[in-house]
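Box 3.1 A note on notation
Throughout this textbook, protein chains are presented in two layers. The first layer is the amino acid sequence; the second is a token string describing backbone geometry. Keep the layers aligned when reading.
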Amino acid sequence: MHIYRSHTCGALTAADVGQSVRLSGWVHRKRDHGGVLFVDLRDHYGLTQIVADADSPALPVLEGLRVESVVTIDGEVKARAADTANPNLATGEIEVYARSVTVQSRAEELPMPVAGEQDYPEDIRLKYRFLDLRREKVHANMMLRSKVISSLRSRMVAQGFNEIQTPILTASSPEGARDYLVPSRVHPGKFYALPQAPQMFKQLLMVAGFDKYFQIAPCFRDEDARADRSPGEFYQLDFEMSFVTQDDVFNAIEPVLAGVFEEFAQGRSVTPAGTFPRIPFAESMLKYGSDKPDLRNPIVIHDVTRHFTQSGFGLFEKIVGGGGVVRAIPSPGTAEKSRKFFDDMNDWARSEGHAGLGYVTCKGGEFGGPIAKNHGEAGMLALYAAMGLGPDDGCFFAAGKELQAAKLAGAARTRAGEQLGLIGEGEFKFCWIVDFPMFEYDEDSKKVDFSHNPFSMPQGELEALETMDPLEIKAWQYDIVCNGVELSSGAIRNHRPDIMYKAFEIAGYSKEDVDTNFAGMINAFKYGAPPHGGSAPGVDRIVMLLADEPNIREVVVFPMNQKAEDLMMGAPGVVSAKQLRELNIRLVEQTKS
């Protein structure tokens, strides 16, 4: 028999009754029933109930152990009585009578419990992550992550993609988020950067002729944490294809994403591959107030600006007269809601930094509220008819400059959908956001700049750049969104130096700027580059959605906290003076403000 185990703790069934077995694992729970001790023994594979009575030499040893101690049990498999069987446990029909026990490792008093799913402070969970990972739900999340990555990889290979690793130590880029810098010992005063994404390398692989590339790529960005974004590092399914259009990219990745979600959906519905809706950016901002809409929410925002050009409601008339807009957010079936529901929504909007959220109540066709009173019965009937609202539907209003009103309307749409229970459960609804603007006007710098990815191909190519208003030019850029979570951005790339120089010129960059900052890419394109494009769906976010977790740290094995600190390993930490000397670095004490 093996020195540690003949079976795992999830393997034994009624067919094994009468066998002598050896199990190893952690003491998960102990229950003393007056001279009979029941121990749940846990390993990676499951739980097995161990029994030790007064006749068992194992009893005094097990009684003296704390939970989470590691033991090896030798014993005999016995059938449980029918009334004590556990149908929720794979090993629930049997128990193992302990004849002997070997203590492999004694556990000290735990700083946090492992058994049970009770909440515990995040700082304790992250400091003792190795204990947290023993908990059933967290452990299951990591196994889900492993299976999702395996599925993504096999699906990409089946489509003819080649897995290729790109460098981790690379050059710093002036675009994007802040880099993590790595000092060079052999080149004093110079630094590598950890890649924010393999963007340039994967494009260079297309120039090199590899046609279809992918990798499960680690990416590093010095960004603040959010619920759907880890500080420091994250992983993405990075892929790129040559000689493709936008449609080709969509047709390649939709079966991969839909297939993975269907595989792990556990009864939840998934948008079928080939049917992901394509929503232009401008339409998405109008209808949903966001470029990452949650299509489970049936509320659609309406532009009702024209209804308030001449209105008895002076505030909206003044906003519209000054070039602003009015967006309406229907609130269906709110006839039974009290005035407090609407006032609470207004208070919420103010707490989010907005001036407020106007509203109209409606019950049996009777309008209520200051907007309805001042806008007038006829005006309200025309407004409701235009939006297709019924006699028991309320409505909220966001007014102001277009972007400001769109953001408030989008947030109010989500809030109203949640408060009214309208957001569909058990669904994964995908969509593409397409036709992003190539450029935008930056109010801070008072100039035209790139609005998204500067390396995207403009729709209309060089002719569009030379003849169109830059703010009217669309790019071959696209985002994949699922349930309001952006999974990735992608684009058909700008592979021609002449178009790239012109695009950067419009954004205020000289030819010398491009040659200096993007030398590797622009030089490669001068030696024959194929049309190419791709994307990079976020692995962490995919798993977060499938695990139905609200925070991405629940699906990352060793995450940092919101301050980008690894509480378990003590990173970032102080390094020795010797290390700094080797790297030719001198620390400068920061002045206190």
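The first strand starts at residue 20 and ends at 32. The chain has a mean pLDDT of 95.
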